[in-house]
Amino acid sequence: METGLVRIAEIARQNPKERFTALIHHINHETLKECHLEISGSKASGVDQVTKQAYEENLEANIADLIGRMKRQAYKPQPVRRVYIPKEGSNKRRPLGIPSYEDKLVQKGLARILNTIYEQDFLDCSFGFGYLYNFV
Q1: Which alpha helices (H) appear in the chain, and where do they start and end?
Q2: Range of the domain at 88
């Protein structure tokens, strides 16, 4: 995936108005394995109650199945598990959404691709604000 991301970054840098329409092929078996390794094992499980450890027990088959569903457009994100956690310094609670483990993998892979594209819009001196928003 890294070579593909480098090429995407070059295109985004050279032509800021470029529209990227076909990027899902950059999420492959190796990419999802890398994403799996990056996700903390201490994260809460989603509505399906699948943890990193449980997913890892049959990792190769699980990733192959996920990629297969993505390729035939049969992958559907699961509902997010809603949990309410206490607000610090208050007796109020705030909502927290917890996606399923597979959804976390897909989100992490997509975030890599999108970061590669949009990273080109940011200046070295900007922290979270792209040049489009610097009206100085």
Answers
A1: 2-14, 29-38, 52-56, 59-71, 101-118
A2: 2-133
